[in-house]
Amino acid sequence: MATVAAAAAVALAAGMTSPASAGSEQRPAHAAGPTAQRTVTLITGDRVTVDAKGRVVGLHRAEGREQIPVQVRRTGGHTLVVPADASRLIASGKLDQRLFDITELNKAATRRSLKNGLKVIVGYQGAATTARADVREAGTLRRALKALNADAVQTPLKDTPGLWKALTKGDRTSAGIAHIWLDGVRKVSLDKSVPQIGAPKAWQTGYTGKGVKIAVLDTGVDATHADLKSQVVAAKNFSTARSTTDRFGHGTHVASIAAGTGAQSGGKYKGVAPGAKILNGKVLDDDGYGDDSGILAGMEWAAQQGADIVNLSLGGPDTPGVDPLEAEVDKLSAEKGILFAIAAGNEGPESLGSPGSADSALTVGAVDKKDRFADFSSTGPRLGDGAIKPDVTAPGVAITAAAAKNSLIGQEVGENPAGYLTIDGTSMATPHVAGAAALLKQQHPDWGYAELKGALAGSAKGGPYTPFQQGAGRIAVDRAIQQTVIADPVSVSFGVQAWPHTDDEPVTKQLTYRNLGTEDVTLSLAMTATGPKGQPAPDGFFTLGATEVTVPAGDKASVDVTVNTRLGGTLDGAYSAYVTATGGGQTVRTAVAVQREVESYDVTVKHIGRDGKPAAGYDTVLFGYTGLGADRAYQVPAGSGTSTVRVPKGTYLLDAWIAKDFTTFKGGLDWLVQPKLTVTGNVTVTADARNAKKADITVPDKTARQHIGTIGYVYDPAMIGLSMTVGSWSELRTGSIGGDVTGLSQSWSGQWTKGAKAEYDVATAATVKRFQGGKVRHYAARELATVKNNVGAGASGKTGAVTPQGVLSDSVAITDSIEQKLPGTRTLYLSTGNGIMWSLFMEQFGGHDEKGMPLTEALYVPDGMKTYKGGKTYTNTFNRAVFGPHLSRNYGVFRYGNELYGALPLFSDSQAHWGLSTFTSANTTLYRNGKKVASHKDPLFGDQSFTVTAGDAQYRLTTSVKRSAKVANASTRVDASWTFRSKKPSGRTEVQLPVSTLRFKAGTGLDNRVPAGRKATFPVTVEGAAAGKNLKSLTVWVSYNSGKTWKKVTVKKGKITVKNPAKGKAISYKAKITDKKGNVSTVSIYGAYYGK
User: Fold this and answer.
1) Of 37, 1, 182, which is closest to residue 105 (Cα–Cα)?
2) With a threshold of 0.90, does the pTM exceed it?
3) Residue 851: which pLDDT band, with cuts at 50, 70 and 90?
4) CATH fold of 193-456, please?
5) What is the per-residue pLDDT across 887-911, written as a single tens digit (0 to 9) for each?
6) Domain spanning 486-596: which CATH class is it, in words?
7) φ and ψ at 265, to 5 degrees?
8) Eight-state DSSP code of residue 205
9) Which helix (H) or strand (E) segment is 18 a member of?
10) Which fold, 599-678?
11) Torsion-angle region of residue 476: left (phi > 0), alpha (psi -120 to 50) or beta?
């Protein structure tokens, strides 16, 4: 089976979950070079092309969706591509925004997850028999998630329009559809740490976790490790890996912290609950990533296996509302009594991850061995409602625990001592809590999640930190086993109290204590409270209704906790307190918090249609860029023309869409923008569609048909850029709201086609004071550059496309690929001036999918961008032999830390357009000092890498790739090897390693053939480390029998002379290059071209 190597052919669409281990460094986003292309397919079926910088440079809308406007939003470090018919579903909370987040969808882990199709989780309302059948018909059912009343389905990218049709009806979900989530990817987030939480004291009383089952849902568990050999009682694989074996090394480490026996270390590295048993649910693959649906299935399996505690040392970004993992945690906790110990995450302040954001979860932050809060540990408040999270902390810095055999983490950090790893993270803190819960569960078999959570939180040891950092504090299981009184729930959150606060009324909630023992307990109550800056809160800000309460045995008692936010003066933000209840030889510690809303006001937006009446269809967003609303987006609710949203005092960009028909968009869309809206009080804004006008931009040839039109803007003060793409100018009108501003630029680009062999592509931009409507620009022929492209064919019967990409200082000209027959020519008329630069890339297609969409099988891209001059003619040649490796500043072999990887296109054409191709087989192997490090069944281009050790060594890297003659009748096999020395670079520096190659410019025709039997002299060029004066020696051989025998040829003044192959026969080349530092490179190109 052919494997797609061409980046443009990798059509993707998805989001991902990871282990919560701290401190792992990511190498620079590199390996595709500055002009590499990737195509992302949205759930709607629309295809988006992005370059290596993540910029949207191309858009191909699905059949029947040509009239749907599509907006590109660049804000907060993310690029979203949102079709207009999806925008209101996203705003309603029913459709997951991650399905349109190109930044997330284009991440390597997401691409790997979605290589076989888009994965979504569809939640239903009730039985939803018809909807369920329609969804399963539109996609392949991967898992039925009964507890969640949802299906996890996968749909080939070509079939996503059918899935979208099954899920939606206009701008609403279909009947019976409750939620549409991306099946996202998440990743993995003992020594002194076990005594630190008091476990040995619990062991002395006989509690080891015996009889308790802890489900470790992670990267697998190495059950052959001496510490875990007798611990794993069941295992099941829910990942894409081939077995439950832990090849990553995270799950084994986590499991041994929770329940390792310490056998290999003589008990030194014993886990918290060595008497407990492990359920090994492998939900993350061998790279530490896993789909939401696999994690959900693992949770249901753990429940079926009788798990008492589930450890989830994994997570991903939280979003407002309830995601599927949060929903499952809450459901299984309530129905089965299972305690979920979940990592908070490792992203620092105000970054609490999901599913640790679930209400029922016992969410865990990290401290070091001296109980100092770890700076990487994610903190609250919880996104959306300001609730207190995490719930507790535990040791998570420099934790030593079992190492899985030959694991990736083990290779990266090394084992010390043998059989053990020392790493950091809330991933490591969480199993301390899971183990502690197992000790309590043995002591109290009848306790459910609420009792376990309450005892561990209530008995925690507090530190000098806020509830949003540490929850109740660091767990102390030696105290917890003495606990008979708990608080339920474990914290009291008052949420957000609206500004202004001068008229705030006191708010009271009850703090309820449960006595799980057999004797009444009288508790003395005390409270300490702090303000947003750590200072003592004003007297009376938090008050208790009593200083003492008696909790009857087996019963409850409550005390009022009151917050009076009127007393905060002018200092707004998060106020918190700890209630300490002492009595009966125990202490219950409870966190309390309130968000005193910052100065905020109502923004009312009146939407008026083209007819002067209140508009029924609109989608309006406020993007904050100064004040406390900065870097946040506020959606104006849907309504009947007038809607209100509350935002903090500050400055906002208001972006409004108005359409009469938000389903088909017949009649077009009106786009109104107010770049600067200053909110210092309640304010009303009018978005009037009558103020919008369409653009009038034309090209010299009146017979050319417009294919795409894009209008965009960038507002520098807000660091926000948005654009809208339509099929023609008649479909979009633009206009402004408010007064003049500075720092605003606007762009207009369009693509017109004239048959199969010519097209016009124009783009311009200007600094403007308002978002303009009615732009007028009539391009003259003298303003355009003529670029003639000669395009070869790898084999007969092929089609392809040459696609331009224009980049202005702040914007990109969005274009589409226009298919034509190959070989052939295509003339592009490109606009010039205004600082625009163009890059032209070429695709060869290998047929079409069922929807008629072309399938890319080869891709050629220039190494950089070019400025053209109006009235001038230029010529390019693509897809012509000899094809082989290409090296430059952007392409080669690189090292970052102890990671070695390639960005080396092996099928670049004779004009040095870097080239990728589908291939039938590939193998890349690295040797260190003669010993094999690893092999990959991939070419040296993409996401694969090798982990090596730090010291200086000699390396040999080999790669061999074969492709079908049905793709190309030239260079059907390319082999290369490089021998060089390398050691770990200093600091966070990426270094290019000293490798070389030889390029052959044989002067073939566009059919990759030459006149048979003639002598030919042509240049060869050394690229890479040995180029120019760095060359020590170069030897070239030629073969006429596919490499069975080789004949040496002379290199003279950078040229070689050979006899062309006979008619229908091929010629092959081999070269050996040595640079002056002794690094040796070889390249062999089989079937380089043919005689005719």
Assistant:
1) 182
2) no
3) low
4) Rossmann fold (3.40.50)
5) 998 889 999 998 999 888 999 999 9
6) mainly beta
7) -105, 15
8) T
9) strand 17-19
10) Immunoglobulin-like (2.60.40)
11) beta
